[in-house]
Amino acid sequence: MVKSFIYDCPITGSSNLLLRKLTFTHHKTQLELGKLYLNLLPLLPVLFQPEFLVANDTGTLLIVAGSSGILVMELPARYPPYGAFENNKDVVYCKSHSLDERLLFCSEVIKVRRVRFHPGSPKNAHILVLTSDNTLRLYGIENSTAISLAAYQIGETPIGVFPGTKTSYLAAFGEVGVDFDFGQPELDLDTKSLFLKEKNFSSLVWPVYVLRGDGSVYTINIPADQKTKPTVSGPLPRNTRQDPQEEACSIICLNTNPEVVCIANSNGTIYHSTLLQIEEEEYAKLKSETPNTAKKELLCFESIELELGLSTTTEDNAYTCPIFLHKDESRPGRYFATHSAGIHSVSITCLKDLQIYINGSTENQPMDDIFNQESKAEYLVCTKTSASENTNPIIGFALYYEPTSLISILADGNLLSLGILTAEILPTIEELEVEDKKGDVPSPLKKMLRDPFDHNIQKLLRRSSNQPILKLGGEGKHSQKECYELLQRASQVFREYFENHARAREEIEKRVKALQMMKEFQLKQIDNMNAEKHALREKAENLAEKYEDIKDKQDEMMKRCEKLLVVVSQKGAEPSDSEKEYLKELELYRDKIEKYKTSIEKLKMKVKYQKIQIANWKAQEERKVSQMSETHSNTIKNNLKETSEKIQEMVKELNEYKERLHLK
C-alpha cells in the first residue's frame, strides 16, 4: 500500500478517468480504516479532460489540469491518527477555483502545456502556467480567491493554423514553448546587499528555463512579489545542434552545482548540459550583436538514447512518443523518464566527481577523466515491444521516499509499485602510495591496488542492457513469434549478465591471488622486521648500559672540575670582584675605627682634664667659707652623668667594631 499518490505525468492513450473523483489511498489496512480510499470532489464541475495532477509542497493545494483547463482545489486539513481528510469521511468536498476558464476552455488554439507551483512563493500559492500561445501566466491563491497576477510573452504569438488541424504554423516549426522548469535561486546585483543585511528571501530571483519544440532554451526571471518587470533572454548558446527532425518535449534542472539541464526529445534522445556563466568580454560582444542575449550558456557533455519499446529484433526502432522527465529528490544525480513505452531510470555518474572538481579539492584531475564516465540508463518498466503496435502507456507517476519507490498507473488500470535499490558507492579508501624507485615503467600491480576494487566489480557487473518488468498492452493477446522473441531477448540479456559474472569471478580470483602473494611477502617482511626488532632491542640495552656508565663518569668529572675551580680561585694572584669589594668595606671600617679611637682619646683627655678641674674646684671650695648651692651641685652631677653615659656608649661601640674586625 502507498501513503499518497499524485498523477505527475500527462495522460496518454485512450483511457477514461472519472472526471469528478480523485482517489487518494492511505497506508491503512481495511480492518483499521474500513476502506482504502477517499473521494475528493471539487465544488466546481470539471469541464475538461484531466490529464495530470500537481500538488504543492505543503499539501494545501491540488491542481487538476488538462489541455483545456486548470482547476485548483483547496485540500482540507488532515486529522490524526492516520492523517485522513475530514475525519475519514466517505466524500470530502473541496473548495475549487477555475483559472481563466473562458480563455482556456473556449479557445481552440490556446492549450495548457505545463503547470508548476512557483518555488519562491511564501505560502506555496503561486502557480505558473505555460500555454501554447508562447505565454507564461502567473496566478495566485489569496484569501480563498484565484487572482491572475501577470502574463509574460516568451515569443511570437501563433496566428494561423494548418487547415483542418489545431496545429499552428509556429508549433510546426518548433517555435512554441513545450515545457519549462525552475532553476536554482539567484541574487540580483541590486538586491544582494539588501538580502545580506535583512535576509529578505523575497529578493531572490528564480530563473525559469523555457524549452521550445526546436530544442532552444529561453530564460526569464519571474519573481513572486511582482516588484520588478522580467525580460526574456535567449536562446541560450549551445555547443550542439539539434536534428530538425527531433522534437523537444521536456526539460528539468537538477539541483546540483553546477546546474545540470536535461532536455528530452520525442525520439528517445536526452541531452545532459551544464549551465555556465558567459565571460564578461564574450557577453558584451554577444550583447552588441543581439540585445536579448542570455548571460548563461549550455555546455552539452553527454547525450543518451533511451530504448522506446523492448527491442526483440535487430531492426532499427523508429518509434517516437512524448517523454516526460521527473526529478528524484533523494538523489540529485538521478531522474526518471516516463513515456508510452514504459519507465526509465537515468543516473548521471559524473556529477559527483564534477562537484568535487568544482569545489577545488582535486585540481590536478583532468576534465576528460570526469566526462568520460558514461551515464547509466536502466529500463525499469516496459509497456511496449518494438515489433508490436499495442501500447500500455504510463498515465500516472509518483515517487515515494524512504525508501525510494516509484508508483505508476498504467492505461489498463493496474497500479505498479516498484522499489528502487540504491547501491551507494562507499567512500574510496586512501590510495596506497608506494614509491617507485625506477619511476619509468608503471606497475600493473600498483595500478590494480590503486583503483578501488568495488568500483572495478561494479563496472564489470554493469549491464549494457537489462530486462525490465513487462506490462504489455493487448490484454495478454500476443503471438507466439512475439513471445519467442521476448524469451530470446531475456535469455540473451541474462547470458550477457552471466558473462559479466564470469569476468567478475576471474577478476576476484586475480585479486585474491595478488593479495595472497602480498600476504606472503608481508609475512616475510614481518619476520625480518621481528628479527631486526630483537637485534635493535639488544643494541638498545647495550647502549643503555654504556650510557649509564658514561653518565656516572661524567658526574665524577663534573665534581672534580668543581673542586679544581675552587682551588684555582683560591690560589689566584689577583682577588676576585667580591673579594675586592669585601676589602674595600674593611678599609672603610678601619678608617672609621681610627676616627673612633681619636675621638675616644680626646674624650679621655677631656675626662682627665675635668677630673683635675673638679679636684681644683673642690680644693677651692673647701677653702671658701660659703658652701655651693644645691642647684649648682645638681647641675654638675647631671653633666657628669651624661658625659659618663656617652663615654660608655662609645666604649661599647669600640668593642663591637673590634669584635667584627677580629682585633682582640
TrEMBL record:
One of its GO terms (biological process) is ribosomal large subunit export from nucleus. Residues 498-606, 633-660 form a coiled coil. GO terms for molecular function: structural constituent of nuclear pore. It comes from the Eukaryota. It holds the Pfam family Nup88. It is found in: Nucleus, Nuclear pore complex. The keyword Protein transport applies. Keywords: Coiled coil, mRNA transport, Nuclear pore complex, Nucleus, Protein transport, Translocation, Transport. One of its GO terms (cellular component) is nuclear pore. InterPro entries: Nucleoporin_Nup88, NUP88/NUP82. Its main location: nucleus. This is Nuclear pore complex protein Nup88. It comes from Zophobas morio. The lineage of its organism: Eukaryota, Metazoa, Ecdysozoa, Arthropoda, Hexapoda.
